[in-house]
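Appendix C: a fully annotated inverse folding record. The material below is reproduced so that readers can follow the format used throughout the book. The structure is listed first as tokens, followed by the designed sequence.
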């Protein structure tokens, strides 16, 4: 029986508790938050008695096997290291750490101590993403992806959720090097990092939407576009938007076709590259796509009836795979190289769009390739444009 603890008892902690309760062979033994009342409230909702306001005390008394860290990212590095130094495996919510340098130091400590780490990129473990990964491994694209596209949207219109950080300059989101982007884009960037080799070129541009500008928040950007190229020649495009509603999508293109996974609708569309004679090209591909959409709906209904389709399926799947890696000594579900690559890409994006918030010393320490510095110099006019 794995003993689980959670540090940070805010809104996202509820999702972690619900996911953990779906996994056999584990038990939540403790909760911790510097605001003890939050830990006690979470404990009352889910019947967890042991609540603490100090991590060291919780580790000493509860002696968990795994700790989920769901605090604001500024504390991720220090809390993860404290757990690892105590011999405990760690699940870190996204973003993994503030910088790639921090990510590398946490990974190095885990490897040195023989412990396991993962990051909360749960959207990589939804049903359609698992199927997409299987098809890519089986060679549906006819080789490695030649181009990738990742789209991630976030709705700022509902101010019940957004007003907390939009109205407060001292809010922890506003203190991040990448501000709003820093807290949200790792899901979409990680989807690209999984399939990219060493990144050699990044061009990022960001601007403020009319909606955000109308609120008078001059220092917060909410529209981001990024071009990426790796050393194998694979290119990628990332789009984050608060104005394009309901778009969380990954597309991969290769020599033999393309494949698209829609996270919001739980659907997967395969498009083989082939030509048809005469007017058949206007009929067969649309009919094939219609058949695939019908198949997606049929599978989603079947999975729902079998209780395999529910909110936070990806979090449960990622968590269970991580627990199994701890139990069996297998590799973690998300590779450490992917975690670090995601952090490095994010470092470079923020260095380009918020240069005044990141120092040259920080950029140098994150291991940013010198070629990226050249790209930033050459593309400087683009970075100030609004497309």
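Designed amino acids, in order:
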């Amino acid at each position: 029986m794995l003993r689980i603890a959670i540090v940070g008892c805010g809104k996202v902690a509820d999702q972690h508790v619900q996911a953990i309760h779906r996994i056999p062979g584990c038990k939540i033994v403790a909760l911790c938050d510097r605001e003890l009342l939050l830990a006690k409230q979470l404990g009352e909702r889910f019947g967890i008695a042991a609540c603490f306001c100090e991590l060291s005390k919780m580790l000493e008394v509860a002696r968990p096997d795994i700790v989920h860290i769901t605090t604001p990212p500024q504390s991720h590095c220090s809390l993860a290291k404290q757990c690892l130094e105590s011999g405990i495996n760690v699940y870190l919510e996204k973003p993994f750490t503030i910088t790639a340098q921090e990510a590398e130091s946490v990974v190095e400590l885990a490897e040195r101590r023989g412990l396991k780490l993962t990051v909360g990129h749960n959207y990589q473990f939804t049903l359609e993403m698992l199927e997409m990964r299987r098809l890519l491994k089986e060679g549906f694209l006819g080789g490695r992806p030649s181009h990738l596209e990742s789209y991630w949207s976030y709705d700022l219109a509902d101010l019940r959720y957004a007003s907390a950080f939009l109205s407060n300059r001292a809010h922890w989101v506003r203190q991040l090097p990448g501000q709003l982007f820093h807290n949200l884009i790792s899901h979409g960037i990680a989807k690209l990092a999984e399939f990219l080799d060493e990144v050699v070129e990044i061009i990022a541009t960001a601007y403020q939407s009319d909606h955000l500008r109308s609120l008078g928040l001059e220092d917060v950007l909410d529209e981001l576009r990024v071009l990426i190229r790796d050393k194998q020649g694979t290119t990628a495009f990332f789009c984050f938007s608060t104005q394009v509603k309901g778009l969380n999508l990954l597309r991969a293109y290769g020599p033999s076709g393309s494949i698209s996974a829609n996270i919001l609708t739980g659907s997967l569309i395969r498009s083989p590259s082939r030509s048809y004679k005469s007017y058949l090209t206007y009929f067969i591909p649309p009919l094939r796509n219609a058949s695939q959409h019908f198949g997606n709906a049929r599978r989603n209904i079947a999975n729902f009836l079998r209780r395999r389709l529910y909110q936070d399926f990806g979090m449960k799947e990622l968590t269970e795979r991580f627990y199994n890696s701890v139990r069996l000594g297998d590799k973690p579900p998300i590779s450490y190289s992917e975690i670090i690559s995601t952090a490095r890409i994010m470092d470079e994006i923020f260095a380009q769009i918020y240069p005044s918030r990141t120092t040259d010393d920080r950029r140098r320490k994150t291991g940013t390739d010198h070629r990226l510095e050249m790209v930033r110099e050459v593309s400087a006019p683009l970075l100030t444009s609004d497309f």
